[in-house]
Each structure stands twice: as C-alpha cells, then as structure tokens.
Amino acid sequence: MRWIWIDRITELDRATRCVAIKNISLAEDVLHDHFPPTPATNTRPAQPPCPVMPNTLIIEGMAQTAGILVGHAYDFSHRVILAKIAKATFTAAARPGHTLRHTALIERISDSGAATTGTVELIDPATNTATPLAEINLMFSHVDDTRTGLDLPDHNFVFTGQIMTLLKTSGLKTPSP
User: Fold this and answer.
1) Using an 8 Å Cβ cutoff, are 70 and 106 in contact?
2) What positions carry a catalytic annotation?
3) What pLDDT, on a 0 to 100 scale, did the predictor assign at position 1?
4) C-alpha torsion angle, residues 151, 155, 159, 165 (rounded to 10)
5) What backbone torsions phi and psi does residue 71 show, to the nearest 5 degrees?
6) Which of 57, 113, 121, 150 could form a disulfide with 130 if both were Cys (CB 3.0 to 4.6 A apart)?
7) Phi first, then psi: what are they for 62, rounded to 5°?
8) Three-class SS string for the chain?
9) pLDDT band per the 50, 70, 90 thresholds, residue 152
10) Contact present, 105 and 119 (Cβ < 8 Å)
11) Would residue 102 count as lying in a domain?
C-alpha cells in the first residue's frame, strides 16, 4: 500500500471492531483538484475553489480500517485483499478541517475471507459533533499460493511496514516479523 488514508487507530477489538481517524487537511494535494476555482464565462460567474475529499479515498480509508480488522483477527498471517465494495452510500461532503471517523465491524469471517460493515462519521471541528457521512460494506479474500495457483511474494505485500508503523504509533501491538 503506497498511501495511507487513515491517521490513527483508536480502537481495535479482535475480530469485532476497528475505529480509525482521518484528519482532512488542505495540505493534501488531492484536495486541490476537487474542486479548483473556475473562471467566469459568458454564461456563468467565476466559482471559488471548493476543496472536497473524494469519496473514493474515503472508501479506501474504510478498506484500510476494515482490512486491519480482518488481518488482526489472524495476527496478520493472511494476505488480506479487498475483493468487493458491496455498498457505498454517502450523505455529505468531507472538507478540509473535518475529521473522519471510520468504524468497521466484522459481519462474518473464515479462513477464505471476511465481510465487513462500516460507517464513516464526519466530525465538525467547530462543534465537535459527529454526523453520518457514509455506509460502506466491504468483502475481503485471504489469498495464498495454494488457493490462487500464483507465485506470490514471501513477504506480506498488504500489511506493509507503513501499516505496522501506523499500528505501533497508535499504541497497538504488532506481530513479530
């Protein structure tokens, strides 16, 4: 995983629940493209910039949160791959200055994979109140050489050093390499 779309894990209950926080900052380059200012034309006035966190990145943050939950259930010994976005509905837009709270729950889990349900809440810094932003349900597969017939790398290419560092800086134990 090259980009991490969560900043901190605040709760992690084995095979049950994971809660992660993402602080949205105007310093993130992706926000400058969503949506930049537009100049005036003959038919419409100029529009000021309106930075919004893309919903696809919010889904990725939930996938990382839920993926950590699924991986943690087996002490990160399985390669956990996002297999399907079963549901993703949004009710608002996330903007710089807001905080996202991703909450993932295990619906079912087995040696072959897992299904998770998730909610994302938008925390307004002015009022410190949380309002629903999204419902995101995901399905994961556990992938190994025997199931896929592929020659996969020996290292765990999903739970990289970045994810393990995130867990450590969140105060959580990680398995020994």
Assistant:
1) yes
2) 34
3) 38
4) -160
5) -65, -40
6) 121
7) -70, -40
8) CCCCCCCEEEEEECCCEEEEEEECCCCCHHHHHCCCCECCCCCCCCECCCCCCCHHHHHHHHHHHHHHHHHHHCCCCCEEEEEEEEEEEECCCCCCCCEEEEEEEEEEEECCEEEEEEEEEEEECCCCEEEEEEEEEEEEEEECHHHHCCCCCCCCCCCCHHHHHHHHHCCCCCCCC
9) low
10) no
11) yes
Q: Tell me: the pLDDT tens digits for 10-37?
A: 999 999 999 999 999 988 888 877 778 8
What is the domain-level CATH number for residue 69? 3.10.129.10
The CA distances from residue 19 to 90, 102, 158, 167, in Å, are: 18, 6, 19, 12
Rounded to whole angstroms, the Cα distance separating 69 from 18 reads 6
Nearest CA-CA partner of 36 in 45, 25, 46, 23: 46
Q: Could you give the CA distance from residue 135 to residue 51 in angstroms, rounded to a whole number?
A: 22
CA 73 to chain centre: 17
Structural domains of the chain, count: 1
Orientation of helix 161-169 relative to helix 55-73, angle to 10° = 80
d(CA 58, CA 120): 8
**CA nearest 125: which of 165, 169, 163, 94?**
94
Predicted TM-score (pTM) of the model is 0.88
